[in-house]
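Proteins fold reproducibly. Look at a sample protein:
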Amino acid sequence: MSSDDDFRRQLMETFQAELQEHIGVLTDGCLALEKDPSSEEIGRLIEGMFRAAHSLKGAARAVELEDLGLMAHRMEDVFSAIRRGEMGFSPELGDLCLHTLDFLNQAAQAHQKGAPLAPGALRALLKELEAAAQGSPFTLPGGPAPAATEQPEAARPQAPEKAPGPRTGTPPDETASETTPEAAPAGGTIRVNVDKLDALMDGMVELLVARMRPAHRLKELSQMRNKLAAWETGWRQMRATVNQIRRRETGDPQFMSLVNYLMESERDLRELNDAAGRIARGMAADNRQLVLLTDEMQMGVHRVRMLPLSNLFSLFPRMVRDLARDAGKQVELVVRGQDTEVDRQVLEAMKAPLTHLLRNAVDHGIETPAQRVAAGKPSQGTVILSASQRGGMVVLEVSDDGAGIDPDQVRRAVAAGGIAPEGEEDAHEIHQVLFRSGFSTKDQVSQLSGRGVGLDVVKAEVESLQGRVTVDSTHGKGASFTMLLPLTMATTNTLLLKAAGVTVAVPATAVERIHHIPQEKVGSVEGRSVAELGGRAVPLVSLAGVLGLNGDARPAGDSLLVVVMGLAERRCAFMVDALRGIQEVVVKNLGRQLKSVPNVEGAAILGSGEVIMVLNVVDLLALSRQEAALKASAPARASQAAASLILVVDDSITTRTLERNILETAGYRVEVASDGEEAWAQVQRGGFDLVVSDVDMPRLDGFGLSERLKGDQRFRDIPVVLVTSLDSEEDKLRGMQSGADAYITKGEFDQGHLLGTIERLIG
């Protein structure tokens, strides 16, 4: 058998495994829908069946089984119509779907054996599926007959056993069942059932957990030795006194017995301390040997599970070629780093995300030859699929030199689809809208795209593997999607933190930096607490507050301990009580009942037996945006009997009048100034509790006024709120550096926002 034939056979075996998984989802969904579930359950089932049909369509096209792809596409149309509410699911429709699944199963098996399809049966089935999708009457075709009459009927394949963990297909080298020892030559290779590999890894994981316990016992023994050493030192200091008592010979036999017992105790204490030292040294040696052996064993198991990405990347060149031809485009796929090895579970999970990204690159990214030539580009576009290793992570990147992402087009699609943008304004942040379920910039549905399915699958799959996905694009020049994933899923390096007295862990890959920041580096921008870190303003929240734990919102002291976490373009600094170091842990999921608990990825057991929660950084960053701004500390006032006096500074008489009316209605006394110099003169007279100032003013602007106030010992305790239309990150950072206590952009301005900020500052 030639290498091409062998590869084709392996590819078909891979497709068969994936086919069985999707058919299982679709069959279970049809049977569940026939049991009259609730409307919420119907929606969940249809969504899952739609995704299964969508993925099956792509997989069939990847192995050039266009007939199976057409059947999956017609089923996708049926489920899409149900999702849109244009039709309901009936028993007759269920019969048609199950009949189609039988046809798919037998047709795939026939293809694997080289039997041609009977075109009449396929056309009849596609016709009925198309009628069903359009809500027209349909009938159930005759029994499936995928093979021609001269070919033997293909037997229905048995569903392969599934190994635990996410599945989107099985790499070619692992699809076969276990073989007997005689089937493999000595020193060669054998095929092992993936369930056995998973069982071996599960045992290895439990061994790693057990390995942590001796290390913890060694620490406890070390603490006991320290106490013994202190006891022995104290006894040596008392030895002279005891010897003096012995020399007195008082004649009291009981007293002398006590003294002799004390002298013997010294000898026993020394022997006990020496014995504890020998045990500690022996345990330390045993622990080092255990760590060495388990590390070697862990590396060996990992090597067995590691597969080159070429097993996955080899599926894509033909797929991209066919997609480009169908779309009337010229596209070259460049593959790099295919020899990079990753854990089998990671490799399997990445098939669907990479498929979606490559399809998007061809359909959304690369322009037609005429459009590229008009834009001054070569007629042929380039899509690059690359992989590289970065420490314990693998970096997968799909980039193209196409049209890139047009932020205005995304905004229009958001408005047309009624999807809330959650405040995304700049080009980088609005890219996150692309990962929303149901979002698409396509106006029409095609076989390639337009249904709003794809990037949300990419994001969900990557985050389920404790990774992250980012997008970078320049409109007119191209786009790049980067996925950062762990090489293995067996263990996770975490940073142990304490918040409100509770120990939690966060994946170390999400931690960007750890800082002790002085209290004066904390300010307020648009009513939210921020910290100046690395020349930029980073949102600042309490980790205990985000998790709903009882603890101080802002710990007392001259400085704050913060951990900066980030995913994609989002960053947040979390205040914590203390750090407990870096530790490799085995993350256990919480089970189906607790799967939806927010902020929690899973649980881990430390060597002490302590069970801690491993936090989900994606949830933390999302929740931190909703966290209420922390109360900024305000200087104590000598008297609160009278209403606070506020100075409003703005060169626009309209703005001054508006702000004055808002504040006076709220009960404050207000004076006004038309620029910074006039305001500075008024402040000299004293009595102001707070200053609200514009930034862009003649003579002395708001930054200069704030710097002058904060630089004068007499006025540095007067809070300054800057209200301005300057909303760039540089302007916000300049406001913090000038000493302003709050920074409100006029685009975000409303009465409640201003009053809430002032109340936090002066009550």
About this structure: The chain has a mean pLDDT of 76. The radius of gyration is 34 Å. The longest strand covers residues 381-390. Residues 194-248 form the longest helix (55 residues).
